[in-house]
């Protein structure tokens, strides 16, 4: 059998296939080469990945494109097609770029072979026989995958280093009195689409590391963010509040860099939806895709974690509605409200519950506890089932049309107005940041409640003390001096 020469792109593709559990014999037969050649590529995988990353970085130093928006749109389209295992040749890409240029109203543009060549160099794209991914659907049932493929994939990773991430759609303004009216309604456009966000949830197998949530909204800068210095979540946006390949790649690049600083490597399980491209350049994240059409069974986050987050979120939403009724004010929910309640909901999900969901999905041996979310089952049982499940099937990603790609690229270059909060839904409390004195007055009210109406625990009293320290640390010394000056004058 002849020994053929592989390009760097082909070698990286082969490494990706081996990492996803494909057999050496299958790949060597496909390429008409001996198995020892594939073994050598696998043996040198770390060196080859470093070479690939260096090449990618050098490629970005090339002369920038004349039409940046067009290049960005072309790259989004190309990545989307490759995530679907669609073979893309030079002429096909050239034709598509001309079509995108027409949609973007770029006059006197004709894509040339040299433009394609520079585009390929800038983004390290190689054409030829596709070997980066396998288009064959895994026909084994979940149990066979777990028994035969999963052990080799997870080799070298302890439970703390194995993560799962999944998206969920959320009607963040939806209260129980609106459930029956909205259930089953199409969310692709109109009023209801403005009331949804997408949340990316990620945690490790032991539940000891719950990643900060990623929230995707429609508006780049909601008015309710005015005066907010930081958020308890990562926030991204696009016109449909969906996960996209660009957001997914940006999120994983950030995570990979964070792991680089910690000198830690992890394995990340995700489903193979169009918004999850195969990212070969990651150095500290081993990206593993679950078999097609098995995520309902194999996705740990779908075994109760996301459902539990929604239960906690909607519990807070109902309590807010009751509080607003008692205070005789109109109940309103902004994206900022939703983010704060989601962060609280995520913190209330227990590590034990997350670990049990991984067990239920079959990724580790069932020990003494097989309950999915025992700690929080009571909360779930207290919430109406229709209300809890109202957005279970909400779309979180979709194959983007040319119009979607063009609109998102153009929108990202513009300063966006708030399009997810109506003018009449804004309240003064979101226009002005609460003052130090207002925060201190609220703290005094909490203290009176805990010391008179409710027997608070030591941990709760300590939390109040820490909160007071935090508020005081934000008080300017000049303000304190001015206060005592006024006091002395009187």
Polypeptide structure, described:
By secondary structure, this protein is α/β, with parallel strands linked by helices. 49% of the residues lie in helices and 8% in strands. The protein contains 22 helices and six strands. A six-stranded mixed sheet has the order 4-3-2-1-5-6, covered by helices on one side. About 10% of the residues have low confidence.
Topology summary:
Elements: H1 8-19, H2 24-31, H3 35-43, H4 45-59, H5 68-83, H6 90-103, H7 113-123, H8 142-148, H9 150-153, E1 162-171, H10 179-182, E2 196-204, E3 214-217, E4 234-237, H11 245-262, E5 266-270, E6 285-289, H12 295-298, H13 305-326, H14 335-348, H15 351-361, H16 377-381, H17 385-389, H18 402-412, H19 428-431, H20 436-453, H21 458-473, H22 477-489
Helix pairs in contact: 1-4, 2-3, 5-6, 5-18, 13-14, 20-21
Task: Please tag this protein with its features.
490 residues; alpha/beta; 6-stranded mixed beta sheet; 22 helices; 8% strand; globular
């Amino acid at each position: 059998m002849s020994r053929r020469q592989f390009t760097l792109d082909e070698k990286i593709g082969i490494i990706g296939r081996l990492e996803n559990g494909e057999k050496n014999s299958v790949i060597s037969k496909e390429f008409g080469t001996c198995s020892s050649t594939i073994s050598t590529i696998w043996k040198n995988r770390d060196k080859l990945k470093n070479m690939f990353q260096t090449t990618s970085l050098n490629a970005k130093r090339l002369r920038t494109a004349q039409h940046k928006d067009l290049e960005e749109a072309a790259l989004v389209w190309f990545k989307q097609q490759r995530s679907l295992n669609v073979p893309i040749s030079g002429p096909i890409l050239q034709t598509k770029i001309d079509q995108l240029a027409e949609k973007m109203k770029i006059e006197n543009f004709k894509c040339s072979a040299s433009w394609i060549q520079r585009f390929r160099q800038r983004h390290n794209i190689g054409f030829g026989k596709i070997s980066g991914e396998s288009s064959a659907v895994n026909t084994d049932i979940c149990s066979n995958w777990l028994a035969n493929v999963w052990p080799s994939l997870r080799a070298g990773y302890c439970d703390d280093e194995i993560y799962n991430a999944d998206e969920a759609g959320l009607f963040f303004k939806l209260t129980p009195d609106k459930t029956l009216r909205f259930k089953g309604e199409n969310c692709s456009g109109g009023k209801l689409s403005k009331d949804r966000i997408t949340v990316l949830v990620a945690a490790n197998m032991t539940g000891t590391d719950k990643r900060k949530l990623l929230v995707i909204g429609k508006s780049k800068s909601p008015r309710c963010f005015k005066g907010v210095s930081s958020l308890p979540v990562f926030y991204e946006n696009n016109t449909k509040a969906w996960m996209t390949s660009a957001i997914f790649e940006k999120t994983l690049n950030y995570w990979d860099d964070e792991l680089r600083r910690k000198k830690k490597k992890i394995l990340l399980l995700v489903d193979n939806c169009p918004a999850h491209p195969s990212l070969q350049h990651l150095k500290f994240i081993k990206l593993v895709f679950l078999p097609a059409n098995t995520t309902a069974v194999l996705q740990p986050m779908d075994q109760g974690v996301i459902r539990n987050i929604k239960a906690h979120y909607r519990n807070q939403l109902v309590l807010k509605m009751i509080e607003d009724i008692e205070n005789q004010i109109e109940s309103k929910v902004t994206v900022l409200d939703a983010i704060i309640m989601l962060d609280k909901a995520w913190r209330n999900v227990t590590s034990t519950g997350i670990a049990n969901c991984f067990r239920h999905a079959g990724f580790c041996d069932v020990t003494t506890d097989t309950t999915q979310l025992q700690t929080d089952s009571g909360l779930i049982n207290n919430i109406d089932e229709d209300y809890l499940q109202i957005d279970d099937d909400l779309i979180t990603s979709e194959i983007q049309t040319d119009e979607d790609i063009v609109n998102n690229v153009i929108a990202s270059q513009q300063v966006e107005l708030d399009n997810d909060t109506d003018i009449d839904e804004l309240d003064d409390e979101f226009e002005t940041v609460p003052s130090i004195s207002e925060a201190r007055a609220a703290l005094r009210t909490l203290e009176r409640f805990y010391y008179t109406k409710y027997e608070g625990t030591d941990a709760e009293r300590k939390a109040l003390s820490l909160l007071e320290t935090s508020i005081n640390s934000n008080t300017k010394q000049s303000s304190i001096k001015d206060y005592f000056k006024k006091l002395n004058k009187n």
